[in-house]
Write a structure and sequence with these properties.
The complex is a heterodimer of chains A (125) and B (308).
Chain A lengths: L10 H14 L12 H8 L3 H13 L3 E4 L3 E4 L3 H27 L4 H16 L1
Antiparallel strand pairs in A: 1-2
Helix pairs in contact in A: 1-3, 2-3
Chain B lengths: L1 E12 L2 E12 L3 E6 L5 H8 L7 E6 L8 H6 E4 L11 H11 L5 H10 L13 H14 L4 E5 L7 H17 L3 E5 L3 H4 L5 E6 L2 E7 H5 L2 E7 L12 E7 L3 E7 L4 H10 L2 E4 L2 H9 L9 H5 L8
Classes of the chains: A mainly alpha (125), B alpha/beta (308).
Keywords (chain B): ATP-binding, Nucleotide-binding, Transport
Pfam families (chain B): ABC_tran (PF00005)
Protein name (chain B): ATP-binding cassette domain-containing protein
Amino acid sequence: MILDTNGMKPIYIQIAEWMESEIMNGGLNVDEKVYSQYKLAEMYNINPATAAKGLTKLAEEGILYDKRGIGKFVAEGAKQMIIEKRKNQTLKQLIDDVVTEAGYLQLSEDEVIELIRNSWKGRAE
Amino acid sequence: MKAVQTKELIKKYGRRTALNGVSFSIEENTITGLAGRNGAGKTTLLKILTGLLKESDGKVEVYGNRPFNNLQVSANSIYIDDQMNFPTSLTLKEILEEGRRFYHNWDHTLAMNLFDYFGFHPKGRHNELSKGKESTFNMIIGLASRSALTIFDEPTTGMDAAVRKDFYRALLKDYLAYPRTILLSTHHLEEVEDILEDILLMDKGNLLMHTSMEDMKSYAVAVSGRKEWMPEWMEDKHLLYKEESGPYEQTVILQNNFTSEEKEELKRKGVQLSPVSASDAFVYMTGEANGKGGVDDVFSGRIDSGSD
């Protein structure tokens, strides 16, 4: 991953999202220890406090759990939590944007659903 | 424990006030950036913290001691800038040896490895170094001293981009391995912001802001679009800068404290929100350009000193 340091998205969020994708694609498994804030700081050339904030965010969401003095580990059901979160937040936001844009263009609900169906078909092929 | 604490710190040079009542504290083992325009009081502040200057009034403590004339502070802090003088009779290698004798945490292996990496000659002389090489050498001393309070005042003067990058990386790596309190003043905030935890912003002898780098990066937002698209409540936002682009369009830099409903409304109206980097936000906050034309005023005749 390359950090986008000029964007709207804070670096600690980018770090958290990167760890989420590592969990999603099997790079990090349940009960596996994740990188420490110091390791992340060194990998991404960022302040360790920033990296710690990303780890804390995932721990607060229950995706990671803490073993005192040892580090943070991937929680049971982490994948499902990430999927739920992305569905309810990221995907919902994208769809809201689609609907808003469709509103500008004065498209009907059916037309938009038709577009989604086509895109879905294209993806399956 | 607080590494640094000041309260209503004042420094006057004759009639001129360089520090106008500065109060802040810095947690131990953090990297803090110090930004400010030329003449904002950065160097004065840093020199007081290391005991090189005596404060005029107010309180200043470094690890619980008043820095001026204090051996405890001298032994545990270092101030690096581009005006460092070393005895001309010593070679570069001998200067490093002296550093080892003075600083009890000194890492001579690190000093010599950096010395070799940056291609210094052991028999070289400090006064014969180019500007950039001099800064690089001074930076090595600053890193190798491993002082509990390490202060870099504009450490990258004259360094080329590659050396600056190496320096920031070396600083971060050594800090991760040996945490200590680091203060770094810079005019290149965009280059160091990612390795900073906190930032102090100074303007005209005052402390403008002391906040986390993360908050500084989202402190301001650029709002652009047609004037009639801008909702009325925007008037109540704290304006940092305004720019008209053509007769219909405008861009305003505002403090970024919008609610999600407000953002939603702007988006719906077609107004664009874009991020303002920490260094740009800082320029908007401290610029002479606050609502005026900046240096353009000099050329448009709006600034006239009255001399012919």
